[in-house]
Amino acid sequence: MDGEVLHGSCLCGGVAYRAEGPVRHTSHCYCTMCQKQHGAASGTYANVARATFVFERGEALVTEYASSDHGRRGFCKVCGSTLYWRSTQSEDRIAVTLGTLEPAYTGTVVKELHVDTKPGWLPVRS
After folding, report:
1. What is the pLDDT of residues 36-79, one digit of tens each?
2. Which is it for the CA torsion 50, 53, 59, 63, positive or negative?
3. pLDDT (0 to 100) of residue 125
4. Averaged over 14-25, what is the pLDDT?
5. CATH number of the domain that residue 33 is part of
6. N or C, fewer C-beta in 10 Å, the chain?
7. Residue 85 is part of which domain span?
């Protein structure tokens, strides 16, 4: 995925961003914080170099929530769309949410994180 450019935006369209590949990895994170943040079974992310992440519009509409001593979750303060997760311990990386990408991400998710808190109500993969 070298040279791939990812474009994303929030639900209300006030925030738009881009990030350039390569995508280091993609993941479903089943930690309980991602579940609460997304209101879903997991947060799904593409991990990219933070230096390539830029806001194309609406940066003033983005706020961050410190969900732990090292985790920051960025979201639109108008519509609530989760845009990214970043670690203060790995300042060179940022994980953008796959659900905000336009066009939709065509790769596959390669990692599952925190499977110990993966909801039992998810369907079993066959």
Report:
1. 999 999 999 999 999 999 999 999 999 999 999 999 999 999 99
2. negative
3. 66
4. 93
5. 2.170.150.70
6. C
7. 5-116
